[in-house]
Every structure is written in structure tokens, then in C-alpha cells.
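As the work plan foresaw, our protein records have gained a C-alpha cell line. A representative record is set out beneath this paragraph:
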Amino acid sequence: KTTHLHGIFDEKWFREVDEIIERYTGEEAFGTDTHTAFIGFIQEGSDLLQRLDSAYGEILRSIGQNRITRLRAKLQDFARPLTDYLGTVFEVLILGPCAKMGYLKEIEPKRGSNRADGLVIIEGVNLLLEATVSTTGRPLTRRAGAFDPEEGADKICRKILDKAEQLKEATEPILLFLNPYLTTFRFEAKLGINSAFEKPECGSIVGVVLASDYRAGRLKVAWNTATVARKIPDTVRGRLESTYGLQPLDMTNLWNDR
């Protein structure tokens, strides 16, 4: 039983799941396009649900009950299709640690016509957090065969630059958390990050954190030392690394898996 999420997965939601199960004929693999969280929790077990519940609780405690309207709307994504589900899980798990430390000050702050996922303040330094999951990429059947690594690298580069463009009216530095598509090799991701960091339009991105999956596992960070225009103090970087258990992404050797 969850402490904070029970209002999201209400009785109506579970009745709908029951109806889906009752309609299942067994002729194909069981699945649903509308209640993806049910499938996710079956596959991942209670650990993921408890992590989400804990992170959500920390966010509520940090920003207050009177400022959760947009957050609750985001949590409703859990009951909708796969792309919404993955993105919302990832976002909540990324915001949770900063909320626990008392750094999170705002959910979905608006900058120009777009919104970041969160605003944190660490040692008086304002920083925007952006969390994104790539749900498209090279087909699974092509991972074992010949492929062009520039294709995957270019996708990562464009994803980073797109985020910088979306938040171009922000004055704060941005830390981007990115879960690449599952067929993306680590060296492709590093090539893409390097390519993005070389472009002046990436100056607002202080760093990119790669996650091994949408559950925010094995987080590794590459700090932008090439074109960053909005530097953050080393002590703030240290606090972020400690909060998330960030390990450095080895950018000196693009071909290893570290």
C-alpha cells in the first residue's frame, strides 16, 4: 500500500484494469495502451512503486500542498500510454532526491513559452532540472547488425540542443537528465554529448546526466567545460553529485563503457 500515490490509482482506475483483464483472451501477450503503469508495476515489482511513492512524498513535503496542481496532473500520466508513463516516472524519480535535500523550490517553472521540470536552489545558486526519456530510436533488430554510430550520436546531440532551445529564455543554468533509447550504445551517447557541448547554443547546459533506464539507475554525469556560459560553483556540483550519487562519465575515452 502506498502512502502518497493511492489518490492517483483510485478505485475507478483499478476497476478499469479489471475490465481489461476480463476482456483478455490469452491469444496474444497481455498488454494495455491506456493503463501502462499496471504492466510496469507487474514487471518491476513493488520496489519501483515504493520508490515513486517516496519521491512523490518528498516533493509534496518540499513544495507544499498548495503547489501540487501541476504535479498531480503529471502523475495522471501513469494511467495513460507508455511514452507518458516512462517520462513521468523518470521525472518524479529525478526530482525526488533534490526535494529530500530541501533544494527543490518549484515544479514546472515557466520560462518563456516552455517549462522546465524543476527549479532548485543550492547554496544560493538557481538551477533548472530537466528530465527526458527517449522513446524512439534504432529498431531492436538493428542493434546486433551493422549500423551507423553517427545516427545515434546525432539523436543525442539534437535532444540536448532541443532542450537548450526550448529553455532559451531561461536565465538559470540547466542540468539535463537523459535516458537514451535502449538501443543506444554508451559511446554513441558520449559522441552526441561531445558534439552538443562544442556548439555555442549549448552554453546554458551545465551538464548532462545519463541514466541507464527510466528508473533513474546508474547515473553518470558529463559536465560542460567547453561552451558553458552559465557556470556553477564546484561546491554546487559536489552537492549535486552527492545528492544523486553521480559518477563521472569517462569522456576522455569515448569507446569504453564507463
